[in-house]
Design brief:
Chain A is of the alpha/beta class. Chain A is built from 15 helices and 15 strands. Chain B has helices at residues 4-7, 16-37, 42-58, 60-71, 76-85, 88-94, 129-142, 156-172, 188-196, 209-216, 240-252, 269-281, 289-299, 314-320, 362-375, 389-398, 410-414, 495-499, 503-508, 511-530, and strands spanning 103-105, 110-116, 119-124, 146-151, 180-182, 202-205, 222-224, 230-234, 262-267, 284-286, 300-301, 304-305, 331-335, 353-358, 379-385, 401-406, 447-453. Chain B is of the alpha/beta class. Classes of the chains: A alpha/beta, B alpha/beta.
Chain lengths: 423, 531
């Protein structure tokens, strides 16, 4: 590590976040991202990494996509964040564009946050207003963000620390893929909404069983609860379709999109609201206020992001990337069947499962040392989140596979000893 | 997709970033297609080639009519013929050549493996829009390359329709998605973005000189060809009647829109009168000096050739110049006394107007033929009608053309349709014509070969490569979309199976035992990690 980096990390500990800075160092990842371009990150010491983390799809189109840079620059000639109290050209234009691609004909409005957590809070408040009920059901090990309401829907790993866990029994959690538990939670008809990540990302992408999500939607209808789809990580073509919930045959009542919609260039998150749920927007349009939510420059970038994602070439790219990486990963899995034991996949949403309760961490470390950045799943460290971008080139994809094969073998040797076992 | 929905407030679609973005996306998709295409064996490849050829053949007439309607150039009936020639016969010409499997040369102890170029960026002209498109696409398919077509804006609609139909046929026959793409909004800056992109492996440029020069200036490998201006010499040893028939047939074929058409007819006094008579009886109209002057003014504007006249009927052109000709006139012949910069009619004319020059001697005739190509058309085509082989040899060795068609129509002959030259719509103009290739461009130009070369020393034995082939894994298997009904089932490798002594033993274990085993192994692994 360079002297400059050592000094920088000290400053990071002094002024920013000592715990997080040290944790990464302890995990063997001394990454300080400097330059970035396409799907490549460059550490401040100059080392290149292929980015398969993408901050959950924030960098779906790559870092600093030239067209997004261009549209943001051009946008600043006319716009800034805008005045959130007034009808605004860019906010309305993006809402119109989102309605045109919404996962169903009943979607009508868009409300804006400056980030995913805020958008989830808006979604939960919207459902509560529409249902006139308070209870929210989510999944055990769910992750929807860190804001006031969102944090209560998730694993208490993030709420207890701040004494912010639910104390009133308003937030109920049920195991994923367990319809009986879901029905038990809804039976009392006191639930405003079920909130579901279409594929729980931070939990390591356990895949919904066939029929699970549509059945949850049916249960919602049966027990008068709304269905909120958290499409922050599964939307925007990552499944090969615009929204993941559509692929599973679910038309939600409210949908949240974040991360990728910003193009990684200007913070924005959006809540798409069906007419049934949007009553508060007429009753008291000032009910939720956000100075930076739906900042107009963010809207300009988001519209270009939506336009790029819908180009016909992108769909083929996603198909190729998913198929090609899967074929290569299957080959690697066959080489290390005692360690690399599973692939969870839908499009370019992938989780690699390792045969050890912390197995993804050494893989992450060895990938990092071999020029690939992919992160373990916080809530299931057996699983490595493997999230290639929508526009990954063939050359990069091939290079990723080469590096993964090397890193998996090194991680396996570290975890299980270098001699292959023959049980 | 309604662009206004996204661009109404800030529109960057005319920025370099937008153009590069467009090019990158199509070229990246093509690269993926090329990567998968390289996994195909010869049978899978030829199935695609045949499907594309059939589709091209089936729509030859319809596309010919549409091309004439859109561009105003040429004769639908002749275009249909060209569209057909660039379908099945093109494939038949190359059927026996294998661009997929490796080949063994025992004598030289060398094995050669074909390596496709990858991504071809191909420009197609307005003059022969569909035939060129058929031809370039089929060449790409034969060699397992992906191709992105950039049509001439004047033939945009018909080109898009044809390319889309061929892409559909290819994909139905198993071609990778995106192996054939067409740029739907061609513009000069956008074409430049494609040509200069490092994602383009080779440019196949057929078109105007500026476009070809731009291709060569792009920094990418390019196969670009220059314009034609074919001289045709009718020698005293020729069968004059047959020569006139061939020349008129060639000049009137698709109204001279092929760049291989005869431009200047050169002969000698001994056969001049006989040739004039024969031309007349073949359907040519011989112009007077005044009529020639009128044609010169009409065809050549100060800024260049009058595009209005390209591919028009002889009678239409005559009418525009107030020349009264019989209704069945097929070509107009304009006698000229000079060849060179001072006589514009000695330049290329993509219309059924043929200049006629009578040289004093055979030697002078040959020198004049060289002058025609010095003016324009270097490296392209020339024709001769003669029975004296020595004359043919002298002529061919003298003119700076890489194909000399003998006793046949040059339009079709130089392009490989009335001779045994390779059928082509890209005529390599070679070093004379500032091009990298001097023969008729074919699939062999879109493949390079990796050569496995053994020690030349006789004591070192050559390997036996009979039956040794590289892997052809074919199409990529479709990855599962876990949890979506009807997609491939999950392929999780169950840990118990992987860790069990033998498959038979594993299958005999009941679920409870398997769970117990898994738990034990997990515990063991944890212990290992702590150490």
């Amino acid at each position: 590590m360079s002297q400059a980096k050592t000094e920088f990390l000290e400053r990071s500990k002094t002024f920013w976040n000592p715990g997080k800075t040290q944790d990464w160092i302890d995990m063997g990842v001394d990454l300080v991202i400097d330059r970035r371009e396409g799907y490549h990150l460059y550490d401040m010491d100059g080392r290149r990494l292929i980015d398969l983390h993408l901050n959950g799809g924030t960098y779906n189109l790559g870092h600093r996509h030239p067209e997004l840079v261009e549209v943001l620059k051009a946008g600043t000639e006319r716009f800034d964040m805008g005045n959130h109290h007034f009808p605004a050209l860019a906010r309305t234009a993006l809402a119109e564009a989102l309605q045109a691609v919404a996962p169903g004909p009943n979607f009508k409005y868009t409300a804006y946050g400056s980030g995913g957590g805020e958008a989830i809070d808006i979604a939960l408040k919207t459902a509560r207003h529409a249902a006139q009920k308070k209870k929210i059901v989510s999944i055990v090990k769910a992750y929807h963000g860190h804001t006031g309401l969102a944090v209560k829907t998730g694993d208490d790993r993030f709420s207890k620390l701040f004494l912010s866990e639910d104390a009133q029994g308003e937030f109920v959690q049920v195991p994923f893929n367990d319809l009986n538990a879901m029905e038990d939670a809804l039976r009392g008809r006191d639930v405003a909404a079920v909130i579901m990540e279409t594929i729980p990302a931070t939990y390591g992408f356990p895949m919904p069983e066939v029929g699970y999500l549509p059945a949850v939607k049916k249960l919602c209808e049966k027990y008068d609860a709304f269905y909120i789809a958290d499409e922050v990580q599964t939307g925007l073509m990552r499944t090969g379709e615009m929204w993941g919930c559509t692929k599973y045959g679910v038309e939600p009542d409210i949908m949240v999109t974040g991360k990728g919609i910003s193009g990684g260039m200007y913070p924005i998150a959006c809540v798409l609201i069906s007419e049934r749920c949007g009553g508060w927007l007429s009753e008291d349009g000032f009910g939720h206020i956000s100075t930076m939510g739906g900042a107009e420059l963010g809207c300009i970038v988001a519209m270009k992001t939506l336009e790029i994602i819908q180009r016909p070439e992108v769909r083929t790219m996603v198909q190729y990337i998913g198929d090609y990486l899967r074929a290569g990963l299957d080959d690697i899995m066959a080489q290390f069947p005692d360690f690399f034991i599973g692939i969870r996949q839908h499009g370019v949403i992938m989780g690699l499962e390792f045969n050890h309760e912390q197995g993804a961490k050494p893989v992450m470390k060895h990938l990092y040392e071999n020029g690939v950045w992919a992160i373990f799943s916080t809530l299931d460290p057996r699983v490595l989140q493997f999230k290639p971008g929508l526009l990954l080139s063939q050359a990069d994809a091939e290079d990723v596979l080469r590096r993964v094969a090397i890193a998996v073998e090194l991680a396996r040797d570290e975890v299980m000893g270098s001699r292959r076992r023959t049980y | 997709m309604d662009q206004a929905l996204y661009n109404s407030l800030v529109d960057i679609s005319d920025s370099p970033a937008a153009r590069a973005g467009k090019a990158d996306l199509m070229l990246d998709r093509a690269r993926w297609a090329a990567t998968v295409f390289d996994r195909y064996d010869r049978a899978a490849t030829m199935a695609i080639v045949d499907a594309v050829a059939e589709a091209a053949h089936a729509m030859a007439g319809e596309m010919a009519t549409k091309a004439v309607e859109e561009t105003g150039f040429g004769v639908a009936e002749h275009k249909k013929l060209k569209n057909e020639l660039t379908a099945r016969p093109l494939v038949e010409h190359y059927r026996d050549q294998d661009f997929v499997n490796s080949r063994i040369d025992d004598a030289r102890k060398i094995v050669e493996i074909p390596r496709p170029a990858g991504v071809i960026f191909a420009l197609t002209p307005s003059t022969n829009p569909v035939a060129t498109l058929n031809y370039k696409i089929l060449l790409a398919m034969m060699t397992r390359n992906a191709i992105v077509i950039s049509p001439h804006p004047a033939a945009r609609a018909v080109s898009i329709e044809a390319a889309t139909a061929l892409a559909r046929a290819a994909e139905s026959a198993g071609a990778p998605s995106g192996a054939i793409q067409i740029l739907e909004t061609p513009s000069i800056p956008l074409v430049e973005a494609f040509m200069t992109s490092p994602k383009t492996n080779v440019i196949l440029a057929t078109g105007g000189t500026p476009m070809v020069r731009a291709a060569y200036s792009s920094s990418n490998p390019a196969i670009g060809v220059g314009p034609g201006n074919a001289p045709v010499f009718v020698d005293t040893s020729a069968d004059i009647g047959a020569a006139a028939q061939a020349i008129v047939a060639s000049k009137s074929f698709d109204n001279s829109i092929l760049c291989t058409n005869e431009s200047v007819l050169i002969t000698v006094p001994e056969v001049e009168n006989q040739l004039r008579m024969a031309l007349k009886s073949a359907g040519a109209y011989l112009c007077t000096e005044e009529e020639t002057a009128a044609l010169r003014r009409f065809l050549f504007h100060p800024r260049g050739f009058n595009v209005e006249a390209i591919g028009r009927d002889a009678t239409w052109i005559a009418q525009e110049c107030n020349i009264r000709v019989p209704a069945n006139t097929r070509i107009l012949v304009t006698p000229i006394t000079q060849i060179g910069v001072e006589e514009r009619l000695s330049k290329e004319k993509l219309c059924p107007v043929l200049a006629l020059h009578v040289a004093k001697t055979r030697t002078q005739a040959l020198s004049q033929a060289r002058a025609v190509l010095r003016l324009t058309g270097a490296g392209h085509s020339a024709a001769i009608h003669a029975r004296d082989e020595a004359v043919i040899m002298d002529y061919a060795a003298l003119v700076e053309a890489y194909r000399v068609v003998v006793n046949a129509p040059c339009s079709q002959g130089a392009a490989g349709f009335a001779t045994n030259l390779a059928p082509t719509f890209t005529i390599g103009t070679g070093f004379f014509g500032r091009s990298s290739i001097g023969e008729n461009v074919g699939p062999q130009h879109l493949v390079h070969w990796t050569r496995i070369a053994y020690n030349a020393d006789r004591k070192v034995p050559f390997g036996n490569f009979q039956g040794v082939t590289r892997a052809f894994r074919g199409q990529l298997p479709t990855a599962p979309a876990d949890g979506v009904p009807g997609t491939a089932p999950p392929r999780y490798a169950a840990p118990s199976a992987a860790l069990s002594p033998a498959p038979s033993a594993a299958s005999s274990l009941d679920a409870a035992t398997k769970d117990e085993l898994r738990r034990l192994i997990a515990a063991e692994l944890r212990d290992l990690l702590r150490k």
